[in-house]
Write a structure and sequence with these properties.
Number of domains of chain B: 3
Strand content of chain B: 15-25%
CATH superfamily of the largest domain in chain A: RNA polymerase sigma factor, region 2, helix turn helix motif
Number of helices of chain A: 9
Low-confidence stretches of chain A: 81-95
Helix content of chain B: 25-40%
Shape of chain B: rod-shaped
Helix content of chain A: over 70%
Structural class of chain A: mainly alpha
Order of helices and strands of chain B: HHHHHHEEEEEEEEEEEEHHE
Distance between the termini of chain B: 94 Å
Distance between the termini of chain A: 48 Å
Largest interface: A-B, 33 and 29 residues
CATH architecture of the largest domain in chain A: Orthogonal Bundle
Low-confidence stretches of chain B: 62-67, 106-121
Mean pLDDT of chain B: 75
Oligomer: heterodimer
Number of strands of chain B: 13
Amino acid sequence: MKPISREKEREIRDLYERYASMVFRRCKMFLKTEDDAWDATQEVFMKLVRSLETIQKKDSIYSWLLSASTNHCISQLRKRKFEMFDETFHTGGDEKGLPQEKQMLLKELCTHFLAPWDEKTRQIIIYTYIDGYKQEEIARLTGMGESTIRRYLTRFRRESKLSPIQREDLV
Amino acid sequence: MNIHGERLLLEQYACGEFDKQTRQQIDAHITHCKECSAFITQISGERDTFLEKHPFASFDRAHAPVVGLPWYKTLMNSFMKPTLVPVYATLLIAVIIVPLVLREYGTKTSVVQFKGKTPITFQYQRDGVTKDGSPAEHYRAGDQIQIIFSTIEKKQVSLLSIDSKGTVSFYHPDNGSQYCSVATPAGADQQFPGSIVLDDSKGYELVIALFADKPLKTVETEKWIDSLYKENNDPVKINSLLKKSSEGIAASVSTVLLTKE
């Protein structure tokens, strides 16, 4: 592995101490087990370390990590077999966080409905329906306009093959 | 700015984000808002618990080992930054490309054009028949000229010709190199391989053989013939001046003045 300088090491430590718990919480919300969440946290942080040069100073590290951890977890979930995923979800009942119906929705979204959609749409859907962020907040996180976000949501609702009950949940 | 209950905003604040002014606004809000203050405390508590369980050292195994770099690697890294690419590109152009371009074009003027890579010898061939050449004879387009020469000791020789239009042709194996001469052993009837085919320009073609003790530099030789043509503008005139004007360029000079029909 390529060695890194002490200055960079200090920078990574600072970022880790500020943001790692947030990334871990996020990963745990998706992946349920602490071990998986810790592995994912480290992988997301590795991505951050590799991308530090390209992230501009004005960019929010929080937004970047939120997006990276969301994408990473969705990709992890899609790699798993549905049964395994299902089991993980149902044994995670003692975890704090999402209520059961939202957990089910998250499972459905990640394994099925979000699969054909692009990364931006997936993020917006998760931020909206799982995190419960307002459109104004999503706009700040993604750097898009609120009207653009509304357009993404409308398109998703219209074109995704959700059951009427699920659609009702989302509308 | 609405702060109260803005979970995302407060989380970002807890992570140390935002500029000074925004942070002051949030500070002011949480000092009197118990709910938001509790949220910040909760996040900070979660972070402390996480860091206790997963300190930075435990993350170390996943990323590159920290080592003190030797001074030369530190120096090298400081020169290997993407932002310096345009500087390196400019230096590359300045150091390599510009001298090449100058060598190719810079020493040439619009008056004299240099052409030719074909070595010539000291005879002529017409319609498949090789004959001894004579300056008194008239030559035609298509005649192949071969120039034979002899030296009493090892020399460097350069062959070139200049026509009435001022077109100069160098005939040496590697036109474009730093030197425009080739080494030739001592003895009679030396000749360059190959021949030159005369073009259809009318007037004179002055063939010049320069003999020198050291390799002749292309740039200097081109400058010399260029200035000679600029001053005299006529192969016949140049022919009469060559011996004197070649001093400093070559040890001796031989010429053949061909008349073209």
